[in-house]
Amino acid sequence: MRDVMQFLLTPHSSLKKKGDEMSAAKILIVDDDQALRQTLKKALKNEGYVLYFAENGENGLKIFESTPPDLIFLDLRMPVMDGFQFIEQIGIRPDDPYAVVVITGHGDDFEVKRCHNLGINYFLRKPLSMVEVCGLARNCLAMKKNEAELRQYRNNLEEMVRKRTKSLEEQVVFQQTLLDAIPAPIFFKDIKGAYLGCNTAFEEAIGLAREELITKTVFDIATDKIAEVHSRSDRRVLRHGGTETFEATALFDGLQREVTVYKAAFRDANRKIAGLVGIMLDITDRKQAEAENIKRTDELREVNTALRVLLQQVNHARHEVETKIVNNIKNRILPHLLHLEEQMTVEEQANPQLQALKSNLLKLTETFPQRLSSSALGLSPRELQVADFIRMGKSSKETARLMSITQNAVEFHRNNLRKKLGLKSKQVNLRTHLLALD
Asked: Across residues 410-415, what is the average pLDDT?
C-alpha cells in the first residue's frame, strides 16, 4: 500500500532529460481507478508531459497546492473527496492558468450540467479513447498557453496605455500650465467655432470659467455686432487655413476694449483643419495714447501757427516803431542840430562831443537792412530778410518756418551771405558778424 501511495504522489514523465521538466506541461490525474490511471499514463507517456497522480480529491488538492498543474483530468466519483468537492475547493475562474477535464460515464447529463455550473467546459466520457485524450490534452494546453500569452499581451498593452495616458495627461497639464502663465488671453475652437478651451487670462477677461466656456460660441459671450466680426474671421481661417491678424473690439470684464487678434488654424493627424487657436492683445491704452498724441500734435500745430502770426505782427510792429523813431530823429532832431551847426564856427563844429552826437543820431536813423546794404552791396531782399532772422538768433529750421520756405533754401541764402560778406573761408560766426554791424 505504501508503494502505491508513493507512486500516486510521485511525478512521472516520459522526458529523457530532467532539466526539461521545468518547461514541460504539468498534468494532474485525479482518479480512484488505478487501471484508468495506468491507461492515461500509457497514453500520455510519449507526449513529453510531467504527470502527477492522485487517487482522490483530497490528495489531488495537496498536489494542486504544492505543484500547480497546467491541466487536470478529474474523475467525479471518488472516495474521501469526490470531483465536485475538488472543483468547489479550487474555485474555477475563466482566467485560471490551468484547464480541468472531467471524466464522466455515459448518460450522466445531470453531472455534466452541474459541472457546467461550476465552470467546467471540457469532458471525456467513458470508455476513454486515448486518441481523444491526447488530442484534448494538446488542445487544452495550447488554449491555456494562448490565453496566458494573450493575458500577458493585454497586461502589457494596458501598462503601455496607462503609461501613455499618464504621459498625455502630464503633457496636457504642462501645456495648460504654460498657457495659464501667458498674461494675454488665449483660446482655441473646433471646426464649428465652438470653444474647446482657453487660458486663465481669457477666463478673467470674459468672466467665465473654462468649464462654462467649452461648447459655447463667440455669440454666447459677446454682442452680436462684435461677435459677427470675430465669427467672420473664424470662418476665413477655418476655410483657408494659415493665419490672420486684425484689430477689433472685445468685451473684457463687461467693458469694450480695443484688441489685436492673432489666429491660426491647427490640423489633425490626417492634416485636415481641425480648429483654430487665437490670442488677443489689449491695445486700448496704446490707441488712447495715439489719439492723445494726434490731439496734442494738432494743438501744437495750431499754437505754432499762432506764434508765427504773432511773430510776424511783432516784426511788423517793431518795424513801424523803428520807422517812427527814425522819422522823428530825421524830422525833429537832425534839422535843428544841422541848423545849430551852421551857426557855429569851424572850431565849435569840431567839438568832439558835438560830432559824436551827430554821428550817433545818423546811425540811429539807419535801419539794420540799410546798414547791412551799405556795408555789403548786392544783397537781395530775401537775403536781407534771412540775415535779419539770423541776427535775432533764429535757427535755419525756425527761419524756414517763419519765411514759409524750405530749410534747404535758408541754407542756400546763408551760404550766399557768408560769401558776399567775405566770410566764406573764415572761421567766423555769421550771427556774431551781423551783430557787430549794429
From this structure: 90
In a domain, 163, yes or no: no
Is the whole model's pTM more than 0.70, yes or no?
no
pLDDT (tens digit per residue) in 13-46: 443 444 444 478 999 999 999 988 998 998 888 8
Q: Residue 151 forms beta bridges with which residues?
A: none
**DSSP state for residue 20 in the 8-state scheme:** G
- Which residues have CB under 8 Å from 24's CB, separation 6+? 13, 15, 48, 49, 50
**Does 158 fall in a domain?**
no
Is 27 part of any domain?
yes
Q: What is the CATH number of the domain that holds 431?
A: 1.10.10.10
Helix (H) or strand (E) holding 436: none
Give alpha helix (H) positions in 329-367: 334-342, 346-349, 352-364
Residue 252 above 70 pLDDT? yes
Structural domain harbouring 352: 289-365
Q: What angle separates helix 2-9 from helix 57-66, to the nearest 10 degrees?
A: 40
Q: Can you tell me whether residue 134 is helix, strand or coil?
A: helix
Angle 249-254-257 (CA atoms, 0-180°, nearest 5)?
A: 25
What CATH number is attached to the domain comprising 190?
3.30.450.20
* 341 domain-assigned: yes
Same domain, yes or no: 355 and 438: no
Q: Are residues 244 and 326 in the same domain?
A: no
Query: Please, which pLDDT band fits residue 56 given cuts at 50, 70 and 90?
Result: very high
Residue 378 in grid coordinates: 548786392
Copy the grid coordinates of residue 99.
Answer: 484547464
pLDDT in tens, 189-215: 999 999 999 999 999 888 889 999 999
Rounded-to-5 percentages of helix, strand, coil across the chain: 60, 15, 25
pLDDT at 21: 46
